[in-house]
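Before drawing any conclusions, I needed to go through one protein's amino acid sequence and its backbone structure tokens, quoted below without any editing.
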Amino acid sequence: MKVHFKGTRGSIPTAPSSDVIREKVVATLLAARGKDLRSESQIREFVDKVLPFQDGHTYGGNTPCINVETGSDDFLIFDGGSGIRCLSQDILKANLTNKTYHIFFSHLHYDHIQGIPFFAPAYIPGNKIIFHGCHNTIEQALKDQMRTPYFPIPFDTFAADISFEIHSPSETLNLCDVEITMHEQNHPGVSYGYRIDQGEKSFVYSTDAEHKKLAHGKEYPFVDFIKQTDMLIFDAPYTHSQSIGNREHWGHSSNIMGVELAARGEVNTLALFHHDPASTDQELDDFLSHTKNFLDRSKLAVRETRPGIPGAPSPRAHPNEVIVAYDGLVFEL
């Protein structure tokens, strides 16, 4: 499987200002002083391997959408934030027609559905769009956001074959050559996480979820849900102090909670997701460094029992890596 991150920002789309772009250019030129950069390949290698990420790239500003390559002819998409427009541009460039698109929603907050009116394949006859989720108001929500005065083109303008499938969290689905299971999450209005399994490979898409006191208990269903997955895409717009401070009960989680749950779930890669719209590229770089430092320290720590005593816990082994997801990232499992 290949996971294509088309939108990784939360709450509202963000775009870099001209001042931000200018500072990236200045930082790049300063870093290039004294370097022998004569060919295009040398320049590209310098940007990709030498420049800090925040100078040569950007984490992006589109709201949630991921596309999963599974080997199936059908498309498997999770959430329809503004990132789904970028996906539709790729589809148009590839001149793909008569395709089936399975679009799963974590929930119906605007940042997760706002890209649907701009999903070009929905306007093309011969395509088939199937909207999936556990909320029985999906159809109404998608139609309402395209009504006057919110949008000039009504939902009925879509020329593709449109249908809706409402699922129970207890269901297991088999489509697009994968197995999909669902998990109810704590978020205003309720959100749902999705686990995708294909052979020995698996990942979990878990955005917009707050893990409260129950998460620290010995038995926590979410840990079983993510158990031994190759990647956990985890809602983490906050630091630990923010998540237990004035942003508590907002329905989101922290990087520290992500590490803790990924460790207990024996997850290989933790991908931080749903970034705060106010976070700059530099701040997200710092956020990643802070998370990695915490992970490194926690791997060395053991509980207050002496090593060698039967039953004493071993040093933490998971997750093996932490990344900050960004628009355009392709992660191969």
